[in-house]
Write a structure and sequence with these properties.
binds L-histidinol; binds nicotinamide-adenine-dinucleotide; 15 helices; 14 strands; binds zinc ion; 5-stranded parallel sheet; Rossmann fold; about 40% helix; EC 1.1.1.23; alpha/beta; 6-stranded parallel sheet
Length: about 400
């Protein structure tokens, strides 16, 4: 279907399943493994004998992986590691007016990674979540992924590569609940990261009151901004590529070129996916439209992409010029775990920072008198007399 105009909403929203998912989460909290086995049979059609994948199963599955896939995983891993290492914050400190202060960037202890596995396999998502965690220094990684009874060789190979502690053969909301609250087989973690369908998103939203989450990454979104320099065949391929994630993918082309819009419309007219085609007066208007959508992926297929990039305010990840958005999904380096549902208006994609806590410190052995007096004055203004006294006593 072709819609001429901007999308007014996302194709699907997880609030439609909140009530149902709330019941799933509660049942897992109460019944633990028993609920996991029940839901996996109900939603995945698999009767689990055990929830945890054994080390032997992981090793046996990883050994089935062909050398070319292992090589591809190794190449992609190095690029992703380079990206997150290059942005990892240094341990720095400073000081002013007699106070020494700084931040100790501290890695999280236990992280749960959800790797989607309903309609498609996403071993790349395990790389995108596990590598920044390792770069941050996280020592305990736990993975939940629907395996339909057996563990995928690529996921097994990556799990061994990242020294993942445990893999659970569970998916959906029940997997998120298990990671959040723990069960007899599943470790309770401090933070859950990873994308998923509406049930996974709703569960992350619900458990986020008790455990950290990276965000609520749902169905994939791509907005392409194109001018007359763009190649309509490349645009067509980029849109259909992300359309492979399913019919809840948001696909938008905003163009200043009637030719590009006409050619792409002809190419997509036979597809059963939904495409939004939008005419923009000029590049500024096109980028303004893109910012209003705040897409997960933004592709700037224009003659001056670096100039256009300066106007971008809301997007998860941006590809410039003829760079295909799908390369972000695998080997460009930046993460493909990106905000959807317009969350790009207030957050970006997953990075090493999602696995680090900035613990700040201060040591004031001999702070300037002005700082002491200011603190005492404000404490008294707020009525905290003992706050004020505790400060004054130190520096008499
Ligand atoms: N934003 C990102 O960074 C990003 C990255 C990769 C994938 N994704 C998205 O993740 C999604 C993956 O979805 P998926 O469904 O293939 O896999 P999934 O693993 O997210 O969900 C599958 C699980 O959902 C549960 N489930 C299925 N039907 C259910 C029902 N009716 N009621 C309750 N639970 C049910 C099952 O337990 C199943 O294991 C896609 O939309 C894809 O676009 C997003
Ligand atoms: N485009 C998806 C969301 O960024 C990521 C992905 C994984 N595998 C294929 N594509
Ligand atoms: Zn993709």
């Amino acid at each position: 279907m072709i819609i001429k105009g901007l999308p007014k909403s996302r194709p699907i929203s997880f609030d439609q399943v909140l009530d149902k998912v709330s019941e799933i989460v509660e049942k897992v909290k109460k019944e633990g493994d028993k609920a996991l086995i029940e839901f996996t049979e109900k939603f995945d059609g698999v009767k689990l004998d055990n929830i945890k994948v054994t080390r032997e199963e992981i090793h046996a599955s990883a050994s089935l992986l062909s050398e070319d896939i292992k090589k591809a995983i190794d190449v992609v891993s190095e690029q992703i590691k380079e990206f997150h290492t290059s942005i990892k914050p240094p341990q720095i400190g400073g000081g002013k007016s007699g106070v020494d202060f700084g931040i100790i960037w501290t890695p999280l202890e236990r992280v749960g990674i959800y790797v989607p596995g309903g309609k498609k396999l996403y071993p790349s998502t395990l790389l995108m979540a596990g590598i920044p965690a390792i770069v941050a220094g996280v020592e305990e990684l736990y993975v939940a992924t629907p395996t339909k009874g057996k563990i995928d060789p690529a996921i097994a190979y990556i799990a061994e590569k990242l020294n993942v502690k445990e893999i659970y053969k569970i998916g959906g909301a029940q997997a998120i609940a298990a990671l959040a609250y723990g069960t007899e087989s599943v470790k309770k973690v401090d933070k859950i990261v990873g994308p998923g369908n509406v049930y996974v998103q709703a569960a992350k939203y619900i458990v986020s009151k008790d455990v950290g989450i990276d965000g609520i990454e749902g169905p994939t979104e791509l907005v392409i901004v194109a001018d007359d320099s763009a190649d309509s065949e490349q645009i067509y391929l980029d849109l259909l590529a992300q359309g492979e994630h399913g019919n809840s993918t948001l696909l938008v082309l905003i163009s200043t070129s009637d030719r590009v819009l006409r050619e792409v419309e002809e190419k997509v007219s036979s597809s059963d996916l939904t495409f939004y085609l939008v005419k923009a007066r000029d590049l500024e208007e096109a980028i303004t439209y893109a910012n209003s959508i705040a897409p997960e992926h933004l592709s700037l297929q224009v003659s001056s992409p670096r100039e256009a990039l300066k106007m971008v305010r809301n997007a998860g990840a941006v590809t410039l010029g003829r760079t295909p958005p799908a390369i972000i999904d695998y080997s460009a380096g930046p993460d493909h775990i990106l905000p959807t549902n317009s969350w790009a208006k207030f957050k970006g994609g997953l990075t090493v920072y999602d696995f680090l806590k900035p613990i700040s410190f201060a040591q004031a052995n001999n702070p300037d008198r002005e700082l002491i007096n200011a603190a005492i004055t404000l404490a008294r203004y707020e009525g905290f007399e003992i706050h004020s006294k505790s400060i004054g006593e130190r520096y008499v």
